[in-house]
Amino acid sequence: MKVESVGEFGLIQRLAKQITVGPGVVRSIGDDCAVFEGPPTWYHLLTCDMLIDGVHFKVGRAKPEQIGWKALAVSVSDVAAMGGIPQYAVVSLGVPKGCTVELLEGIYKGLQRMAGTCGVSVVGGDTVRAPRLTIDVTLFGRVERTRLVLRSSAREGDQLFVTGTLGGAVRSGRHLTFTPRWQEIRAIGDRFPLHAMIDLSDGLSSDLGHLAAASRVGAIVEAAAVPRARGATLKSALTEGEDFELLFTAPASMSAALTEWAAGALRCGLTRIGEIVPARQGVTLRHPSGQRERLAAAGFRHF
Amino acid sequence: MKVESVGEFGLIQRLAKQITVGPGVVRSIGDDCAVFEGPPTWYHLLTCDMLIDGVHFKVGRAKPEQIGWKALAVSVSDVAAMGGIPQYAVVSLGVPKGCTVELLEGIYKGLQRMAGTCGVSVVGGDTVRAPRLTIDVTLFGRVERTRLVLRSSAREGDQLFVTGTLGGAVRSGRHLTFTPRWQEIRAIGDRFPLHAMIDLSDGLSSDLGHLAAASRVGAIVEAAAVPRARGATLKSALTEGEDFELLFTAPASMSAALTEWAAGALRCGLTRIGEIVPARQGVTLRHPSGQRERLAAAGFRHF
Questions:
Q1: SS3 letters for A69-105?
Q2: Which residues of chain A have pLDDT under 50?
Q3: In chain B, where are the structural domains located?
Q4: Which of A27, B72, B85, B168 is deepest in the core (most CB within 10 A)?
Q5: CB spacing of B122 vs A28 below 8 angstroms
Q6: What fold characterizes domain B149-294?
Q7: What is the pLDDT at residue B302?
Q8: Do B90 and A46 touch (CB under 8 A)?
């Protein structure tokens, strides 16, 4: 059976069945990071992201430094989506024949620039021959046990928030230059309880679907509230992906205070886009007319 | 400038120059694992290894389970080479078009089998589209601070030991089925002080060269003492690589006791193959005639 016939998430489910995890594991496959036990009041986080020339970036179109920046930034975004603090990274590099040292040095410059913005140390790696330039970054981080935010903890009545603006990330080149919302979400978490969170890599409709499924809830997104990047259509904001903004839920009782605080303190912006409802209502988009339509997962699919 | 003109180790040196590491990092690029601070009496270890179809294995020739086994085993060998204990792994999978689910399930079966032998939990991963089947495993582990063994700690007069037998690992298929010497080295380390260690992935001559360079020492290898796998020539045992045995140094005062203990307790075998000498003597091979020749690095080179 070809992978195309089960799809990315069908494949992950089938692979997960082969695996048995031991004690100490808090979360394995199925969230933005794996979570396992650390020192008494902390959890460790571990996440990996593989980027390949022609799939996630194009050598020649993207600057080498942008490729390196993105390669680490996507993992920092995953750590942010758990409420955590990124710490150490290792980098596997697959290098095609004839690749220049300058290209790879540029990629490492970008990695280091990203690492410098968030206190990460790049501590090691592997370099091998590959048919196409391949970069796999694994990022290790930590989170206070009381501050861990899972995909699966959304509750009915929670309000849905998203950082920044959505849509057109690939067309505009923002997918290569984005700033992961690590500091923003730590600042929010210092002041407000977060219930559930995911980063927007596949697209709002897909990623909200993942969060709702993991939490066994439904959600309503207000079409008029979705914050669009300049020039982005609603469809693009809902489905295109590679935004690397954070989507999270917080208790309704905190909604007004959070919105007010964010308006003064959060430069990237924070928008309430909807709410969590019972699972039987599904995940829907509500238009200003009051009409609701099912919000189908339509983001980027690898297979 | 093409990567081929600087070579793998020249490239790594140039990339390392782009990187600044922060506090908490004990060892970054240049050993089998990165080492950073953990709980009071422990260090954390992190290592990644990328395997690509056609370079490290061949789909169709290697069984899927063997590919998965090897993908994790090479990283377990790296943790072993620091004296450590493997704990958690994440797996990035690059999947070519038309790849079957059964192949990937088989790979995960092999990963889990290897994980089961050493108490590792596979806790997460990433799956992306790739031109060729690509598996990158990152392994997290730990080591007591007093038990960390670096490449760079060999001392003049140390005796050189190697586990198992060397040579012909690729030809015989052993590179797909080997057992990393994690338990063996923990058992040795429980009883004897180890000074420096490296795992034999590139070949004895190359890897001993790395250890000697990192430790700023020379070494003499007794040609007659090198333990050869069945049918392997001396040249093959010295240069072919993919053995994934451990090469380590221990104080001469311990040599007899270690050899005696190993003869009774270590099923994989342990052989004293030479000794550490001052750097000015270089790394040489001594034939039974007493004649010495320079032991040139001649193992597998990616570029």
A1: HHHHHHHHHHHHCCCCEEEEEEEEEEECCCCEHHHHH
A2: none
A3: 23-146, 149-294
A4: B72
A5: yes
A6: Phosphoribosyl-aminoimidazole Synthetase; Chain A, domain 2 (3.90.650)
A7: 62
A8: yes
